[in-house]
Amino acid sequence: MNLKRLSTLITIFVFVFSNNLLAQSVDAILNRGEVHGNFSLDMQHYKVDSLIGANTTPDEDVLMNAFANFIYTNGDFSAGFRYESYLNALQGFPTKYKGNGIGYRFASYTNDDMTVTVGNYYEQFGNGLIFRTYEARGLGYDNVMDGIRINYKLREGLYVKGIIGKQRLYFEQGEGILRGIDGELMVNDFIGGKLKESKTKLTLGGSFISKYQADQSSQYNLPENVGAYSGRFLLRRGKISFNGEYAYKINDPSADNNFIYKDGQAFYAETTYSTKGFGLSLSAKGNDNMSYRSDRNAGLQDLQINYIPALTRQHTYNLLATLYPYATQPNGEMAFQGELVYKLKKKSFLGGKYGTGILINYSTIYNIDSTAVPSAENDSTRMGYTTNLFSIGDERYYDEINVEITKKFSKKFKGIFTYSNMMFNQAVIQGKNPKKYPNVYANIGVIDLTYKINKKHAIRAEIQGLITEQDQQDWATVVLEYSYSPHWFIAIMDQYNYGNEIEEDKIHYYFASAGYVKGANRIQLGYGRQRAGIFCIGGVCRTVPAANGLTLSITSSF
Fold first, then answer.
1. For the whole model, what pTM was predicted?
2. Does residue 508 register a pLDDT over 80?
């Protein structure tokens, strides 16, 4: 046997042996740990529909958003990644999402009360007033961090976490670097003894975060390190709780505030009371000049460091959720919200045989009272305006009272009845010309009825109406859905702008869909029109263009 042949045999032997060891190692790892994940795909074929303003189709006719998460856990160790595919991104999503890539990957372990995460991670300090990274896939929004995070339990009741890294910007990273620390003290657990068993629980917290971005401006002298800090508390006793946080941000000239040097501040306060059959929550929020991004020149949804919640009810019904959703105004607003939930007792005069649920929600949002401070355009000390965070201005942005009644009439028949009276400031919320687009005052009603024919068959119907003299005037939506448990469902919907004073704009937006569900797998096929508008989640919004075509949606988890 010559040396060349011997060398080949040895190479084959080493390859087979090493691969056998690798296979055994992988098998051992998988037997000791667990792998979970999920998959989602949304695809649409577009067609021209000039009647609704869908005058063009993408060159590729078919667009797709898809992703798959794979997470491995083994004791105190976990790792995973998310593969994303935009070929190309659906209309209305940022066009910078294009192609394929790993949008999220991480590894994490815990050892002696310390947890270390490297790679990507989502995190929030307190209520998010100075720092929150999260994903809202329906908005195409993802500001995940890429760097290092350390969580440490110093002792019972005392926790601290530190972060450093950059934010995701589509398939790249933003320019700025974030550094932050957050501490939380659970007073009862920390002191221990009898206080640990007390019905009154107090938690205190504090946070600091700073962003670094080099000053490359020839016009302004820009701060390269911009810090923000906050303090918070949570007090609970039995059925009642109080939650409050105050945040302060040093001067942060940016494209959002027209490069003024005014500091920012915000507060959030909430109290809740809940008992069997009754719940009450009251909340207030104020924010002034609190746009905070890791790139001062970013726009749209990009590279937001913090999160200012919208104190409005999050609706799911078509006319309530898609026509006039509220978008948070980070440069200044004062908001208040109250919600009452009450369950009328079963077999009472008003509750009936099965009881009746009542929900009343009221929210109102105003500007903050401010006074302009004149200065030169290129003055690097200009403040823009002065204000008192707790002073309510005279311009109303949004107002809504919402009443929802849930009633079960029999074992087979139930209904949800909703009424909303809404005021919507188009000029501020949607940036429209106030002379052409006045405030909208609307009344919206929804009747949602479900009839269970038998154990497998059910029919659900929605009748929705919106009445207003402004904007596009009156709308109606009808939805019919039939389900054959546990696998099949079909639905049809028609949204009709019947009250529009422009005759050619009285358009039917029809849509039909059918789906199949088996275990954790769901497939839905639909066809029809999509109305142009605004889609919002939690006060963060994106523009949705008019479209017509065939849609396919697949979700799966394991």
1. 0.88
2. yes
* Cα–Cα distance, 200 to 189 (Å, whole number): 12
Kindly list the distances between the CA atom of residue 82 and the CA atoms of 37, 67, 137, 174, 200, in Å, as whole numbers in the listed order.
Answer: 9, 7, 13, 19, 42
Q: What is the pLDDT of residues 11-49, one digit of tens each?
A: 444 444 445 544 444 554 556 889 999 999 999 999 999
Tokens 């976490």 sit on residue: 161
Which tokens belong to 522?
Answer: 């769901």
Local structure of 322: helix, strand or coil: helix
CB atoms within 10 A of CB 373: 12
Q: With contact defined as beta carbons under 8 Å apart, do 53 and 532 qualify?
A: yes
Quote the CA–CA distance of 366 and 285 in Å, as a whole number: 11
Q: Flag whether pLDDT at 78 surpasses 80.
A: yes
Q: Are 174 and 303 in contact (CB under 8 A)?
A: yes
Task: Give the whole-angstrom CA distance, residue 55 versus residue 500.
Answer: 21
Amino acid at 307: Y
What number of other Cβ atoms are within 10 A of residue 508's Cβ? 14
Place of tokens 């760097």: 147
Q: Which amino acid is at 99?
A: G
Classify strands 356-373 and 384-408 as parallel, antiparallel or unpaired.
antiparallel
Could you read off the pLDDT of 385-413 as tens digits, one per residue? 999 888 899 999 999 999 999 999 999 99
Q: How many other C-beta atoms are found inside a 10 Å radius of the C-beta of residue 222?
A: 19
**324 phi, psi to nearest 5 deg:** -135, 60
Determine whether 478 is exposed, middle or buried from the number of CB atoms within 10 Å of its CB (0-12, 13-18, 19+). Answer: middle
Contact 309, 268 (CB under 8 A): yes
Reported as half-sphere exposure (CB side, CA atoms, 13 A), residue 24 has a value of 6
Residue 220 contacts residue 259 (beta carbons within 8 Å)? yes
